[in-house]
Amino acid sequence: MTHETFRTEGASLTLHLDGPDWEGARAATLGNIAFRDAEAGARLLAEALTHLRAADRTRVLGPMAGDTWHAYRFVSETDGTPPFLLEPTNRPHEPAIFAAAGFTPVARYFSARMRLADIDPTPPPATDAITIEPWDGANPEALIREVFALSTGAFAANAFYTPITEDDFLAMYRPVMPMMRPDLIFFARRPDGSLAGYLFAIPNYAEGLETKTIILKTYASLIPGAGRHLVHACHSAARALGFQTVIHALIHDANRSAERSRMEGATVFRRYELLGLKLDV
User: Fold this and answer.
1) Which of residues 143 and 125 earns the better pLDDT score?
2) Prior bond to 63 cis, omega within 30?
3) Using 50, 70 and 90 to split pLDDT, how confident is the model at 219?
4) Among 65, 70, 54, which Cα is nearest to 18's?
5) Phi/psi of residue 89, each to 5°?
6) Which fold has domain 3-109+273-278?
């Protein structure tokens, strides 16, 4: 991936020329935004856009560090509570700088929380199609490789999806592996043992080691209904472990999981936006 870092006193960003597809055109992306000084940030953003026009790019997305596997999205609304573990953050003035340059939202997301005690403990209807099991804690790299194989299929239809190599996927997850708790990681397996879905939850260690909050970070499935079973297993295990609150993290507004979160009564406490600009309009 072709990328270049732009820096000036008080501001920096990284430009990736070869980002995801957006409406049939290859978009560039602007990531690793650090506009400590607003005026310097505005000048640097203008410089990056000039560079993109010279490179004949007609679409640009931001903030996005190359693709949706890495950090992306600005916080657009918040109740002021501290960021949770692995949550994207930004300075309040940074989205406004992008908006002033003509960027508008192209996708919206939210995070919501609720008390585990308020979640209906009734399990979903039984099915013979899958079996839900927790991770046994063995061989984390083999686990990640299996998850990678499923993710490339489960996420391929998502907006702004870009393929990633297995080595890059492993590099993303290695720093997180020491924080993984096997009793908060679940798999949905078919009768033949093949993987049909997975769910990763992690304690919100941003609150400290004794946190009572878990983050439902990522789940994906290839079989309709598997997600409900995975989420139920996670909520049930978290209650039994003494956790009190669950965060449904970084959900796209249009996902089925967004409707499920709303139906369960979770309260939105943060909203996010991915911004885009068409340079040929």
Assistant:
1) 125
2) yes
3) confident
4) 65
5) -135, 160
6) Aminopeptidase (3.40.630)
Using a cut of 0.85, tell me whether the model's pTM lies above it: yes
Give pLDDT tens digits for 36-69: 999 999 999 999 999 999 999 999 999 999 999 8
Whether pLDDT at 156 is above 90: no
The mean per-residue pLDDT over the stretch 91-96 comes to 97
Length of the chain as a residue count: 281
Based on its alpha-carbon atoms, the radius of gyration of the chain, rounded to whole angstroms, reads: 20
Q: Name the phi and psi angles at 213, rounded to 5.
A: -115, 135
Q: Are 186 and 133 in contact (CB under 8 A)?
A: yes
Angle between helices 93-100 and 38-54 (to 10 degrees): 40
Residue ranges of the chain that CATH labels 3.40.630.30: 116-271
pLDDT exceeds 60 at position 1? no
- DSSP state string for the chain: --EEEEEETTEEEEEESS--EETTEEPEEEEEEEESSHHHHHHHHHHHHHHHHHTT--EEEESBSSSTTS-B-EEEEE-SPPPPTT-----THHHHHHHHTT-EEEEEEEEEEEEGGGS--PPPPP-SS-EEEE--S--HHHHHHHHHHHHHHHSTTSTT-----HHHHHHHHTTTGGG--GGGEEEEE-TTS-EEEEEEEEE-GGG-TT--EEEEEEEEESSTTHHHHHHHHHHHHHHHTT--EEEEEEEETTSHHHHHHHHHTPEEEEEEEEEEEETT-
CATH fold of the domain at 116-271: Aminopeptidase (3.40.630)
